[in-house]
Amino acid sequence: MPRYVSLEEAAVILAEARRILVIGCSGGGKTTLSERIAACRGLEFQSLDRDVRWHPGWVERERSEQRAIVARLAGRDHWVMDGSGTSLLDLRLSRTELVLWVRVPRWRAIFGLYKRVWRYHGTVRPGMAEGCPEPWPDRGFLSYIWNFEKRYAPLFVKQIDQHGPNVPVAVLRSHRQMDALLKGAARRN
Fold first, then answer.
1. Residue 31 in contact with residue 47, Cβ under 8 Å?
2. Where are the alpha helices (DSSP H) in 131-174?
3. What is the pLDDT of residues 120-177, one digit of tens each?
4. Distances from the Cα of 172 to the Cα of 35, 50, 126, 131, angstroms
5. How far is CA 165 from CA 74, 93, 104, 157, in A?
6. What is the strand order of the sheet 3-4 is part of?
7. Domain range for 79
8. Which of 45, 67, 72, 95 is least enclosed, having the fewest CB within 10 Å?
9. DSSP 3-state assignment of 40?
10. What is the CATH number of the domain that holds 30?
11. Which sign, positive or negative, has the C-alpha torsion 88, 45, 126, 112?
12. Do 166 and 1 contact (CB within 8 A), yes or no?
């Protein structure tokens, strides 16, 4: 079982942590939260989508290349890293000091996705690799979001148990909680 902490405990840890991992379903606000933390704390923001997974034209990098990039990025001293892939969690969890797990309701994630598409469709959004313009979501991607908690959340729990059992994990179920976490951490700086 992951070492879950309250939002208050997470705020204390966040105020001092040098390496923070933000995970969760697409559309939930991981990238926005990560960027805000990086800006507030003066940490480097690393996006799996932008920095690791994609080449221009939505061409996925080879897994071995992705692992090498994540190993290099995770080896740095100060970062906030977001991404929803479980295949690279072993490398990230071994270095992180705090996991922030964005677990908003699926309707909120779908809404967040459509808000993002409305804003960035046809252009490259922040946190995405150059040459990868925001597409309209297909049925498979919508299904991924709709079924995330049932199909993918257990994989996160398993990876956290296996590769980061002592890493504190804070679950964020709303944007209001994300705001409260950042305010709580700011009060401690």
1. yes
2. 139-146, 148-151, 153-163
3. 999 999 889 999 999 999 999 999 999 999 999 999 999 999 999 999 999 999 999 9
4. 16, 23, 22, 31
5. 18, 9, 23, 10
6. 3-4, 168-172, 98-102, 19-24, 79-82, 44-47
7. 3-187
8. 72
9. helix
10. 3.40.50.300
11. positive
12. no
